[in-house]
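ingest -> fold -> write
write: protein_1
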Amino acid sequence: MTDTLDSAIVAQYLADHPHFFEEHASLLGDVRLSSPLTGRAVSLQERQMEVMRDKYRALELRLSDLSRHAQENATIANRFHGWHQAILRVRNDADLPRAVVQGLTDSFHVPAATLRLFNVAQEFAGEWFASGVSEDARLFANSLLAPYCGSNNDFEAVRWLDDADEIKSTVILPLRKPGAKGPAFGLLIMGSPDPERFTSLMATDFLVHIGESASVALAPLLA
C-alpha cells in the first residue's frame, strides 16, 4: 500500500525546487483547482491570477485608506493653523479667552465651546472666564492627565456651555503651564448634541496640541 504523502512535504519540496514548474510546464494547465470566487474548476495559472487580483484589490483599498487619512490630517492641520492665526491677532490679553473659544467654533466647527481659568491676575478676576468654578471642578482639572473624550456624564464643566442640557458628547482639556506637570490652571471644554461627535475611540493627538496651544496663549492671564 502506498503511504499518503503529507501535503506539507509537497509544499516544502516545491519551495525548495523553484524550477519544478519550468521542467513540468504542462502541469500549469493540467492541474485543476476549485475557485473560491466562481466555484468552478480553474487551472493553476488562472488561480494564481485570482490570487494576484485579490492582493491588488487589497493594496488599492489600503492606498485609498492612506490617502483618505492624509486628506483628513491635512484638513485638521489647516484648521489648526487658522485657529492659531485668530489667537495671534489678539492684542488685548482680556480678549484671549474669547479668541480661543471662538476660534474653535469657527475653525473646527465645534457646536459649543468655553473655558474657565483659575488663579487669574487680579485685573481679570471679574471676567466671565474666571467665574463660577467650584473646588470640585479644580480637583477634577488636576486629575486630568490627558484629554477626556466621550459622553457627557453631567460634568460641572459642561454646565458652563450654552445650552448645556443638549450636550451629549464632550471634550474636556486640562490647561497647564507649558512644560509643567503640576496642577491645572484651567479647563477648556467642547461639546456637541451629537453623541457620536466626541467618543472614547477618537485619536487625541490634535486635542493634546489644542490644549497645549491654548495653555501657552492663556498663561499671561495668570497671577
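write: protein_2
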Amino acid sequence: MYNQIKKLSKALFPKRILFKYEPKFRYVLYQFYKGVNFKCNVCDKKLSKFIHLKDGDKLCPRCGSISRTRRLFDILNSGFLKEGINVLDFSPSRSLYRVFKSISSINYTSTNISGDFLSDFQYDIKDLRIENDKYDLIICYHILEHIDDDKKAMQELYRVLKKSGTCIIQTPFKDGDIYEDSSINNEIERLRHFGQEDHVRIYSANGLKDRLEQCGFIVKIKEFNDSENNRFGFKSNEKIILCTK
C-alpha cells in the first residue's frame, strides 16, 4: 500500500510540496506502525515493523530513513559529530537533513546538483567552488557511482577536507574488480550493466580504496555483519569507507 500511495502522491504534487508536508504525512502513517519490536535510531520511534520496499530495503514509516541512512547515523553518533565542526553532505537523505539542521552546535551544509534532495547549495563535485581545507567531515553516500570522472571528484573531496578530517563514503559494491565501460552511455544499458539507469560503474570496495589512496587519502574499509532481523533495521552485510587526510 505504501508504494501505491507514494506513486500517487508523486504524480499529483510537486516535490516542493511533498518535501514540505512529508513530516505530517509520515506522522499519520506512523500511527499504523507503532510497536515495540523495532526502533528507528534516526527519529527514535519504536515500531511494530519497518515498511519493506520492493528492493528489499526497510523504511521507517515515521521519518523515511532506509537501512543505510540508519547505519550512517549510527556511525556519525559514534564520535564524529563534534561541537563546532563543519560538515558537507552530498545529496542527503531528507530524514538526516532535518536532524542535522536542528543541531545548532554543528555547521551543516548540504549540496545536490539535481534538485531531487533537500539542499543548501548546488555544488559540482568535480569542481567544488569551496576553499581548501574547509570541512572537518564530508558525507559522500551513493554519489561516486554516478560520476564520470570520479578521480577528479575524489581530488576535490581531498582538497576541501581539513587535515585530520574524515570523509565517509559508500557506494554499491561487488566482488572482484571495478566494472566500468565508458561506451555504455544510455539508460537501458546502464541499468543492465550497472544496476541503475544513472550509474556509470560498479565499484569493488578494494578497488575504490585504491583509487582514493591514489588521491592522497588514508583509507579504511569498515564491515558490518548484523543479524537479518536486527532491531534497528540495518542491512545484515554492509561496507563503508572511512577516509582521512
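write: annotation protein_2
Helices lie at 2-12, 15-30, 67-76, 94-101, 150-160, 187-194, 205-214.
Residues 15-30 form the longest helix (16 residues).
pipeline exit 0
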